[in-house]
């Protein structure tokens, strides 16, 4: 698939922008702070309903404007779709598909699929476990949009259960039978929603492992082998992807942890406490990998995500935001060679020399709020 048109209204620094796009490579080149990332962030937002660099929607709306609107024309197998998202910070966002309103924006997740790699992705390797859980869960949602619902169900259960545990912990006395009965109910909900998430993550990690190893070996041929290990809060228990069995194991796990949970006032067992361990050779990448190795690992994770989505039947749009300046010449050329065949690749760079020559295509100059095709600048 590819994006054939991007239109912005009050998004980030843009009052308005109209950017026609084609399949193949498009580079956005311009000095720092001119709005290159803002453009690709908008495309990522249409695909995921989130930003890769802001935890909330407020910064996405141009300062002083009440809302932002992002429109993307998407072409998939010669069929066109128009996605429109109205971003209303603090209120519900609204979405339209082919000019018809949809009841909930999440119903159009999956119409556009992107894989975005940006400097922030270094935190996939160096950051907290939450970053890696989010990577897995976002990929699950990109592959099967119904996971947006599974994730929000789990979050809701967790929030309610934590509220109950917190208030029980605050009372400092043994909780009465009513509290314990309510907790039993939340345990069941946690096991049900958690087992679905856990089973999907385990399956996903198995799918990712060979792809990450292959991408990493290609990017960094002189480094150790990259591997992934899913570490569950259930400890050393053998885990399969059988949901019913996982639900039983989660129920057993929370039963065992109940005393501690009541003391600490927080849920200690479940997929929200799991970790995706990244390994390089015999060592964990976090805390051991060099800066360059960490970059290559983060890239390998994104490239593996791209391959997995592609294997589902369609190339996602590949976005490389400010990536090449960080890589040495060898890694640059290898990465460029790996991504060049994708249906659409969008690249941002501060100077034209940062776009590898293997990635020839259209170029836009981005400066002072203007996005101008290069041929117009020359002419
Ligand atoms: N909500 C907003 N309202 C107005 N301006 C904004 C908003 N959010 C960001 N900006 C402005 O957008 C600019 C940053 O744009 P962007 O991150 O796209 O730059 P860039 O061209 O990718 O730069 P770099 O090469 O440094 O990565 C900054 O000048 C910032 O002040």
UniProtKB/TrEMBL annotation:
Residues 3-350 form the RecF/RecN/SMC N-terminal domain. GO terms for biological process: DNA replication; DNA synthesis involved in DNA repair; double-strand break repair; SOS response. The RecF protein is involved in DNA metabolism; it is required for DNA replication and normal SOS inducibility. RecF binds preferentially to single-stranded, linear DNA. It also seems to bind ATP. It is found in: Cytoplasm. ATP binds at residues 30-37. One of its GO terms (cellular component) is cytoplasm. Keywords: ATP-binding, Cytoplasm, DNA damage, DNA repair, DNA replication, DNA-binding, Nucleotide-binding, SOS response. This is DNA replication and repair protein RecF. Its main location: cytoplasm. Belongs to the RecF family. InterPro entries: DNA-binding_RecF (IPR001238), DNA-binding_RecF_CS (IPR018078), P-loop_NTPase (IPR027417), RecF/RecN/SMC_N (IPR003395), RecF_2 (IPR042174). It comes from the Bacteria. One of its GO terms (molecular function) is single-stranded DNA binding. Transmembrane segments: none annotated. The keyword Nucleotide-binding applies.
